[in-house]
Amino acid sequence: MCRHSGTVRRWILLAICCVVAGIANGEDGVDHISAVRTALEKDDAPGALQTARLGLEYLPDSVELLELASQAAEKSGEKDTALWYTQLALDLLLSQEETKETEDAVQRLTKRAADLDPHDDKVAEIIDGYAEELISVADGAQRRKLYANAVDLYLRCESSSLARKASEKLDRFYGNKKAVEILLASGIDVPVRDAERISPERLASMDAKHAAWERAYEFKGPNYTIRTDMGYEMGTDILQAMEQIQNFYRKVFGKKPGQRCNISVYRTRAEFDEHEGERSPSIKGFFRPGQNYVATYDPVSDGLPQSFLWSTLFHEASHQFTERVSTGTIPAWLNEGTASYFEGARLMPGGVVETNLIPDTRLRGLRFVLEEGSPTLKDVVSFFRDGSYPGSYYPVGWGLVYFLQNYEDDKCERVYVPYYDAYLKSYSTGGQHDPVERFEQFFIDRPKQEGVKTFADFEEKFKSWIFDLHDLHFGPSSGADQLIERARKQKKHDKLDAAAESYRWALRKRSTDPVAAFELAEVLAEQKDKDAALYTFRKAKRLAREVEDPAAELRGMKGVAATDLVEMVDEQIADLDRGIAKGVAESEGEFIEQTRSLVQQYADDDLPRRALYVLKEAQALVGYHPLFARSRENIAIEFDVDPRRWRRLRVDSELSQWTLGSGWEADGEGLTCDADSLMFAFYRDEPPEDFYFETEVELTEPKAGTVVGLAYAVGQSTTPQLVALTVPGKALLIELRSEAGPEVVDGDFGSVEPGLITKKLKLAIDVERGRVRLLVNGIEVGKKVYDPQAVRGGIGVFVQRSVATFREMRLRY
Q1: Average pLDDT score over residue span 447-453
Q2: DSSP label at 18?
Q3: How far is residue 26's CA from residue 56's CA, in Å, rounded to a whole number?
Q4: Which residue among 25, 188, 279, 288 sits deepest, i.e. has the most Cβ atoms within 10 Å of its Cβ?
Q5: Positive or negative: CA dihedral 104, 105, 108, 110
Q6: pLDDT at 13
Q7: Which residues have a Cβ under 8 Å from the Cβ of 800 and sit 6 or more positions away?
Q8: Global confidence as pTM
Q9: Are 669 and 689 in contact (CB under 8 A)?
Q10: CB 762 within 8 A of CB 776
Q11: What is the DSSP string of 435-471?
């Protein structure tokens, strides 16, 4: 799950769950807390500190153990470490529900932190003061219905000492259903609900009660009823996504759904087959005509990422609408092609559904079909009988609908859209006809496009357009330049919706592009979408700050450097909303300088961890800033300190924290899988932006074709990135883009040194500000640089064609 409330709160909840499950003692039942107390009583402070550090790998969010670790560090003469542990414990308490017990502990730890911290008063004045100011700005934004900006500002403060106040504000916001509906409709990818308002204890209890299909959850919305045993959070996600996609169904079909649609989503393929009848393995879900019923299952049980669930749902549920096009037969391409068109919808991390995108498998398959010459476009158009058409026809059907919805003439008019609408309506009356003749009537004769006089002319235009689309979609990030130029042309012809779509596509191609973000914000402002424009201008400012050479001319914006663009953004924000400008942009500069001065004082006082902690807290409030990044790097190098903490990934017998394919078993500390095909195990909680993930791997009888590795950027709607080792010795960066299996997408990872791969090895990935490194037995074998947002998400492990055991799985952040 990818939700807003932050990594710290997730791990707090996980720690609470662990305590409730009876595993609070950590490794092999060792009571680390008692062991630390005993060592302190014997005046063995170094031993107590060492024991506490190990215990905190298993109980990273135990306030009691953190407090004991702080005492042990102080007695060992490590003041910096003592202050750091105290602050971590205090943060945890401030994120928990307010009780008499927690408040007593807050007062005790607050006093201890003040005693240890020589600059405690300045932290309160600078950091807490600015957080208070941001909350005030967010309050004003919410009153002015600038909901995306309000949510974003509240979220920034959830990593501060005002976390409790910010969380309470968010809870009240999410209780306003009308505001949430407006935020959903905005299309802005900020979280649209608080997934953690239910306590973890209650959530675990609820999910346990509904784990069997006979007692599955049932969620009802205005148009859908969802039944699932995949858990409460997943069920509500499905309902929310389906209610959104229905708005797009209505736009395409021009009509309401008729009656409620019932959807069953099973936890495994075995459950699906048991309750829906065994079907071909290629069938991942189905729509039952006449009953408005859809059934599918979690594809992780087939060794596929959960992202494949959404394309199945969006495809199958659309048949409710195609079924209402006519009481008689309609062309199969119109039925299945339009349903396939909806596979190009994506559930974004915040919960908003983005539409009119390109499903990779369909476009890749279509190019292959067009190159092979079979089936032809006429074969597909002429297929006019009940039931579906052959599998090879699906990519053509998808491509035809996508072409009709998106082809533009020289004036950026999507000329075929009204004829597609009219073609749909023509089937409402039924009647005998030749399907090819009717197709020619609506898409060749009536549009009167230059150079398109015959079906062959239309087919040639279609093929040429699809080949260009394939090259752009699968091509390098430089394709963003083409999309920006397209957006500018669309804007010139007053096609603002299309321009916004092209700018967003440019940002998917090159997500670090501040020019695309800035010009998208300008379009949104022209459309009078003030909230989205302000949010996107602020994004453009963040991207401009991340440009490597801020004084160099920006790509695609002649005579403008990143520093100039930051000023331009501030001017635009001030024109749109003085409240946001004054509270965020104008006061930010002073806050940054005050913070840097404070951080240097900590460094001068030999308190590097405290310095880095303050920097991290400040950066959460303002977003990435190069001055903060430079200070962080300098301190880390000068003092040789890494404040990231180790955390063990627990593997309990129920595997409650894992989403698994088939064949996985647990033994308390490790996962084992005997896999022929590619099998994944995904951890259910995601690490923060920067992290280090490692595991020991033991392969039994590795052979040619064996693949083992680590996954990152795992989400409900994302295709995971995979770093992998293959036998006999290649290191690869691959992506699971289709059901056909993994595909190598980068060549930076090369051959592994001879002898490096053994039956026992240690794999690790180091993710920091978008840079991903793969290490094998401590040796770096490859790296890749992304936009930081592109590598957000969960983590996991995988294996193919071997028995693999993963032990000592640890995260450091």
Answers
A1: 96
A2: H
A3: 9
A4: 188
A5: negative
A6: 34
A7: 675, 676, 677, 678, 679, 705, 706, 707, 708
A8: 0.86
A9: no
A10: yes
A11: HHHHHHIIIIITT--TT--SHHHHHHHHHHHHHHHHH
